[in-house]
Design the sequence.
């Protein structure tokens, strides 16, 4: 398979996964900012959203204030933001178009239709000042649906060969990165000193974190108790049954890299690095993580994950 | 409308026998049915993403080529004549190119003026003295054909470089079978869907001689922003070959490789849809990012076959076109089976004088232009446009030819709420391979959708129709 | 004159490049005014140099390198003997018809007008060529450089250019006069300042053949001009064309050393 084809396939998945994540992030933050002031530390919410989405560096070039309207406009529709949802779908479609024939007809037609539909949302929501909340919810639903359907079509229609493996690999790497970003931005809220005192405002922050990785319901199924910060961290990092946890993502990463290695009859750097990261997660306990520093742990993970993404590019995608 | 040959009625009240069933279908179908079929077609085309980019039109970066649901019919007898003419013509084109880059007999014999060849940018001195594998230069040729009466086919233009449109020929057929299966089954339509197979066989036949067993064939595209990208990906899919861009290839020691997830893989045949100018930055335009450095070296060393061959464009020049009857006679000792449209070469003073005096009646074309850009259609032009062209002609007469405004034939075409005749042309695709020529019965019918318009180019508001070559004769 | 020529081209990249391909026209082809006693082209890191002849009859070496690559060094050296033949290039392997060298030059309207004005009513072709060379030598200041040439119209408007830019302007002017003209690249044997490569134009005159005209220096090539290659324009005769994959910047340094060759002499025991 052409290296560039693999690269395009991989990035279609990454962009769509990122769009999905951004949609959930905006949704969760929207809930917090809708609360009366007493329940949430509002002023920081949108700034932290910017940081979690990696848009905090470029945002000040275009806006003065990080308020709801500006941040949503920038994250959702702004073509100047390289990782806006709009651009994610656009880039995903551009990548898909470049390798149209490597996708199944269903996948291509779906992503092409989504791109066409995107244009209709753009017309209505382009202005940063007036965000129509109802239209926004419709849009975010559309984004989540776009990613889910793409995944579904991939699962249902693709041949199980390297094309499929690279597509899945993109999802897992991106998903691990997204979960880690949320942890990185919100880690203070999860530290022990934030012991819950009945009806703490933090409750809403924690549930927002869970929401942003669509794990609020999952949390209750797994822990069967009220939301505790260390449980939130445990769920997002170490719980294999939670599909967006770091360990779960790395189970997938290793699986797809092994599948690729087996098909080509050669295992190399990417496989070795992925296994090492997975082992690190498997050997960790939430207690130790808190002792040695949650922030340091997540930081280290992000570096490792990026390192692996680089090795994958070097080994397979650049040819 | 009586001045034009209408392929359905030929000016009579009764349709030509060939069109009996179409006429009947049009008579009984309520306009709403045609409208709904047309809309269905558009939705399907957009969904598959059959679009093309229009140069200089940023707003509509991706546009659909309108598709007309009324097929255009040819009888078997008509096709047989056309086919023989096409094969003859393409054979002569290949012999001409072999000669130009080789012995140059035709120049010495004074049949074609030498300056016409060598002053043309499309003549590639780099190819001089090199023969193309199996003496095939234009593996895929698109010959534009028009009719003005029931008898003759005229060649409007030869396309020897990277003719496009074949994907529309195939997709239009799929669309018709899906939208109007009843009408389709009433006609015995000769199939075109073996075109990709024929193309693959042709490309395989010209693989370099050293190539062991199964040659690695690829399609080279300038990328997804090219106006014909859809076609490139369509063909790669149908042929089951990789669609590569220049950056996917690398040349080491005169061998071309593509970069794959498993390392470098040797490439034997490249169906390139990249123009000569952009093929290799070491030989042609140095600023080209679309090509592959060292590709020409590999080609000249015989390690890879390029289809079509670099330099083939010198044969489809509009000025060389005017010599085609002489070229066919020179190499084949036969008269051309397909007629040329009467053409004035503005480089000849008498012709120039005539053309300048009759600008408002003539179609003036740039010798090196393509796609209907830089073209004057006299009868439809404003005074200013005519004056602009007069100046262009005076300053560079060599750059232009002129032809009479052709009375292109018309075919019934469907519009919201009705059916009306519109002008059409036809581009059949001729494949040349080591074991002979192949043509599938049919081609791309282009239709000028604007009333009275004679410009069928898709970039200028033209549409397409499915072309049905029937198993029955027209007469 | 007899000279030992040594040219070194060192190309270094801002970041390691994944691959590099090159075409070199660094080997002089002998003709009536040039005897090549020995000549060598080499490249470092070592790669297969394939020698061929291009469509103009120039001697071409091509090579490819797989990366990662930080630097490529090309060496061309040898011993040549040149003669002053008044610029006439006779005895080359001419492969192309004159018509090719009459291809109109793009954007040369201003240059054409200038040429027509300077020549007035002069009829004799040789005199016209000398007049053109002198006029352009007068009009264009020679600023030696090995950079890729700008479009002729820009150079002409600027009033200053490298030898290769001036040669292209001269070619355009000659063609505007309907005289077959071509671009020649080469080296100067009497030492060049600011640029390793030199360039001039050749025009065709019936009964004589191709004659060189150097508008940068203002005279016809002498025995100090070492002819390397010719083409329709610069790019067909360029001494080196290279392309790398990736986005690294290429920095090129050239070193040309010429020494007047000594007569062979016996070594004697001290």
Sequence:
């Amino acid at each position: 398979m052409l290296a560039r084809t693999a690269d395009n396939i991989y990035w279609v998945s990454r962009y769509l996964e990122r769009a999905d994540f951004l949609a959930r992030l905006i949704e969760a933050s929207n809930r917090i900012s809708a609360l009366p002031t007493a329940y949430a530390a509002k002023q920081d919410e949108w700034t932290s959203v910017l940081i979690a989405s990696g848009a905090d560096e470029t945002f000040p070039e275009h806006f003065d204030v990080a308020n709801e309207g500006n941040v949503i406009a920038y994250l959702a529709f702004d073509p100047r933001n390289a990782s806006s949802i709009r651009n994610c779908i656009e880039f995903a479609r551009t990548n898909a178009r470049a390798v149209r024939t490597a996708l199944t007809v269903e996948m291509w037609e779906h992503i092409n239709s989504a791109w066409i539909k995107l244009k209709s949302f753009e017309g209505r929501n382009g202005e940063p000042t007036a965000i129509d909340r109802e239209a926004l919810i419709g849009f975010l639903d559309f984004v989540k649906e776009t990613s889910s359907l793409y995944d579904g079509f991939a699962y249902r229609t693709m041949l199980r060969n390297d094309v499929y493996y690279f597509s899945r690999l993109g999802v897992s790497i991106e998903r691990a990165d997204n979960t880690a970003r949320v942890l990185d931005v919100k880690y203070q809220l999860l530290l022990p000193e934030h012991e819950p005192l009945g009806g703490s405002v933090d409750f809403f922050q924690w549930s927002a974190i869970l929401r942003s990785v669509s794990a609020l319901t999952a949390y209750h199924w797994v822990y069967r108790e009220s939301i505790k910060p260390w449980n939130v961290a445990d769920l997002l990092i170490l719980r294999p049954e939670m599909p967006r946890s770091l360990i779960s993502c790395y189970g997938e990463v290793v699986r797809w890299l092994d599948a690729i290695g087996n098909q080509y009859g050669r295992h190399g750097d990417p496989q070795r690095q992925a296994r090492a990261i997975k082992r690190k997660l498997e050997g960790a306990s939430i207690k130790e993580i808190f002792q040695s520093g949650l922030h340091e742990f997540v930081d280290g993970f992000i570096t490792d994950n990026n390192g692996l993404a680089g090795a994958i590019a070097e080994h397979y995608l650049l040819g | 409308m009586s001045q034009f040959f209408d392929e359905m009625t030929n000016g009579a009240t009764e349709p030509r026998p060939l069109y009996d069933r179409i006429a009947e279908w049009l008579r009984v179908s309520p306009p709403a049915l045609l409208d709904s079929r047309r809309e269905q077609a558009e939705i399907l085309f957009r969904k598959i993403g059959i679009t093309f980019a229009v140069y200089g039109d940023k707003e509509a970066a991706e546009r659909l080529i309108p598709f007309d649901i009324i097929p255009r019919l040819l009888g078997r007898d008509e096709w047989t004549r056309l086919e023989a003419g096409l094969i003859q013509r393409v054979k002569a084109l290949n012999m001409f190119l072999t000669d130009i880059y080789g012995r140059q007999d035709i120049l010495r014999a004074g049949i074609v003026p030498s300056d016409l060849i060598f002053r043309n940018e499309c003549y590639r001195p780099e190819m001089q003295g090199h023969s193309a594998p199996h003496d095939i230069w234009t593996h895929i040729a698109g010959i534009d054909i028009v009719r003005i009466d029931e008898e003759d086919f005229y060649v409007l233009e030869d396309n020897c470089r990277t003719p496009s449109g074949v994907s529309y020929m195939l997709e239009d057929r799929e669309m018709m079978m899906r939208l109007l299966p009843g009408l389709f089954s009433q006609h015995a339509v000769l199939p075109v869907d073996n075109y990709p197979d024929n193309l693959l066989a042709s490309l395989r036949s010209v693989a370099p001689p050293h190539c062991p067993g199964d040659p690695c064939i690829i399609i080279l595209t300038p990328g997804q922003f090219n106006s014909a990208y859809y076609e490139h990906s369509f063909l790669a899919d149908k042929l089951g070959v990789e669609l590569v861009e220049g950056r996917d290839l690398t040349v080491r020691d005169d061998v071309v490789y593509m970069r794959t997830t498993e390392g470098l893989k040797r490439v034997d045949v490249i169906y390139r849809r990249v123009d000569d100018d952009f093929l290799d930055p070491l030989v042609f335009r140095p600023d080209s990012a679309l090509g592959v450095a060292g590709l020409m070296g590999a080609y000249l060393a015989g390690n890879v076959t390029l289809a079509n061959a670099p330099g083939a464009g010198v044969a489809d020049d509009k000025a060389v076109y005017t010599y085609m009857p002489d070229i066919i006679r020179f190499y084949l000792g036969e008269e051309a089976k397909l007629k040329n449209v009467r053409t004035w070469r503005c480089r000849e003073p008498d012709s120039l004088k005539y053309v300048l005096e009759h600008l408002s009646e003539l179609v003036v074309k740039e010798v090196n232009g393509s796609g209907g850009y830089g073209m004057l259609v006299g009868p439809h032009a404003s005074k200013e446009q005519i004056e602009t062209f007069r100046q262009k002609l005076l300053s560079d007469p060599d750059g232009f030819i002129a032809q009479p405004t052709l009375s292109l034939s018309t075919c019934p075409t469907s519009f919201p709420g009705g059916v009306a005749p519109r002008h059409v042309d036809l581009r059949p695709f001729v494949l040349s391979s080591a074991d002979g020529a192949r043509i599938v019965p049919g081609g791309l019918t282009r239709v000028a959708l604007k009333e009275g318009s004679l410009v069928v180019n898709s970039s200028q508001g033209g549409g397409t129709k499915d072309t049905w070559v029937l198993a029955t004769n027209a007469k | 004159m007899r000279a030992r020529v040594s040219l070194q081209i060192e190309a270094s990249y801002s970041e390691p490049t994944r691959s590099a391909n090159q075409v070199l026209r660094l080997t002089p082809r002998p003709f009536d005014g040039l005897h090549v006693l020995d000549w060598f082209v080499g490249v470092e890191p070592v790669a297969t140099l394939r020698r061929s002849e291009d469509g103009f009859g120039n001697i071409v070496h091509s090579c490819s390198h797989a990366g990662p690559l930080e630097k490529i060094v090309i060496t061309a050296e040898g011993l040549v003997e040149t003669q002053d033949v008044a610029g006439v290039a006779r005895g080359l392997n001419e492969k192309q018809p004159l018509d090719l060298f009459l291809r109109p030059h793009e954007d040369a309207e201003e240059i054409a007008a200038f040429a027509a004005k300077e020549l007035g009513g002069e009829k004799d072709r040789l005199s016209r060529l000398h007049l053109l060379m002198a006029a352009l030598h007068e009009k264009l200041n020679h600023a030696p450089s090995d950079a890729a040439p700008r479009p002729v119209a820009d150079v002409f408007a600027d009033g200053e250019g490298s030898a290769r830019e001036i040669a292209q302007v001269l070619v355009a002017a000659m063609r505007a006069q309907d005289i077959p003209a071509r671009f020649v690249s080469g080296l100067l044997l009497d030492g060049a300042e600011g640029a390793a490569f030199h360039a001039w134009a050749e025009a065709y005159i019936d009964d004589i053949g191709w004659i060189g005209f150097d508008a940068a220096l203002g005279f016809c090539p002498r025995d100090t001009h070492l002819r390397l290659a010719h083409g329709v324009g610069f790019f067909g005769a360029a001494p080196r064309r290279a392309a790398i994959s990736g986005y690294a910047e290429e920095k090129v340094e050239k070193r040309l050393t010429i020494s007047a060759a000594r007569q062979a002499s016996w070594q004697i025991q001290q």
In short: Chain C has two domains: 2-81+239-260, 85-237. The first helix of chain C runs from residue 109 to 119.
